[in-house]
Amino acid sequence: MNSLIWRKSKMQHNENETRLARTRANKIKRTYLTWAVSAALCVLVATPAFAASDPLTTINNLSDFVFSAIKAIGAILLGFGLVQIGLALKSHDAGQRAQGFMTFFGGIVIYFAKDILDLILA
């Protein structure tokens, strides 16, 4: 009787070991396939980048892009400042009114940052 129980437990132990070995093998295969597909995609999806004839035009285009992004942030601050001023005038809150004017004028400075820099550097 004891030997039968021992054999059953031994068989269950062996089944668990083989199951663990299969899951480890599957995990290794899945990891390998993930890396292989990622590497293949990096190679196949890569597009060539051609340089412009004049590097200064590229730098100027990047500068224009950055300043347009800054101008958009300035416009957002202008709108937010106007909303703060309007809410402060409605609620008669002097602290919020001052904060609104600071945000509004900060938005104006940020919105016209490129023009200000051009005037300073010219």
Please provide a written account of the structure.
The chain is mainly α. The radius of gyration is 33 Å and the shape is elongated. It folds into two domains: about 1-45; about 55-120. The protein has helices spanning about 1-45, 55-90, 95-110, 115-120. The mean pLDDT is about 85. It contains four helices and no strands.
Summarize the structure.
The chain is mostly helical. It contains 4 helices and no strands.
Biggest sheet character = none
- N- to C-terminal separation? 101 Å
- Please state the overall shape, judged from the principal axes of the Cα atoms: elongated
Q: In what range is the share of β-strand residues?
A: under 5%
Pairing-aware structural class of the strands and helices?
mainly alpha
Provide the succession of SSEs: HHHH
Key structural traits:
2 domains, 122 residues, 4 helices, elongated, mainly alpha
Task: Reconstruct the topology from this structure.
Elements: H1 2-45, H2 55-91, H3 94-111, H4 113-121
Helix pairs in contact: 2-3
